[in-house]
Amino acid sequence: MAVDKAIIIGAGISGVAAALALHHLKIAVFICEVKNHPGTIGGAINLTPTALRYLDHLGVLSKLKSKGCTVHTIEIFSVQTTYKIADVDFNNVGKYGYHAVRILRADLLQAILETLNEAGVKVQYGKNLVKISESTHAIEASFDSGDNVTADLLLGCDGIHSQTRTLFVNPDRIAVYTGIAAAYGLVKASSITEPIHFKDRDIYLTPRVATNVLL
Q1: Is residue 156 a contact partner of residue 65, using CB atoms and an 8 Å limit?
Q2: Closest by alpha carbon to 154, among 146, 143, 60?
Q3: Which strands sit side by side in the sheet containing 84-89, from one edge to the other?
Q4: Coil, strand or helix at 19
Q5: Among 113, 130, 162, 201, fewest CB within 10 Å belongs to which?
Q6: pLDDT tens across 56-100, in order?
Q7: Phi and psi at residue 104, in whole multiples of 5°?
Q8: What are the C-alpha distances in Å from 180 to residues 174, 185, 209?
Q9: CA 29, CA 18: separation in Å to the nearest integer?
């Protein structure tokens, strides 16, 4: 069956990137977000050469050049022994075409949104999904505003508290806390007065904790 229109639930990084990719394929997109404004959770993200090639193809990469910092290598150390375990090397530009880039998630989201807006695709904010119905040839999303949208394809990009999952994909599955938590902070590089023992970026690993140190 040909796909002429898609519904995307969630306008975080994955949702807006998917919307832009589908638009490039000449597929009409309805993308919505439950929040009333753009937003993302988390600090920085490392964009690999594959991610940069994808963003370049979608016309986003030029908007990121002044926002992020180039990553040549990530060094991995053991917290317990302090010894280096491995390197993640992003220096093979001849093969992959790109290094890696470290950037704030909010800056990445904004860049993709700007490109999406330039393409004429607008995110519908404040849309709370309440029902998904599927027939042989279509799928319909219903919202608490009373609006119903029908398409050939629906993508659930609405994150850890996904309404797509709880209403349609697996409504009987109950969320269970795994005991894992994440915390992060930002420190200005200029405030570091002691010598550092790595060249570019590093990660400390233990069986239970991963600490990401980036300058």
Answers
A1: no
A2: 143
A3: 84-89, 73-78, 201-205, 210-214
A4: helix
A5: 130
A6: 999 999 999 888 889 998 888 887 888 888 888 999 999 889 999
A7: -70, 140
A8: 17, 17, 9
A9: 9
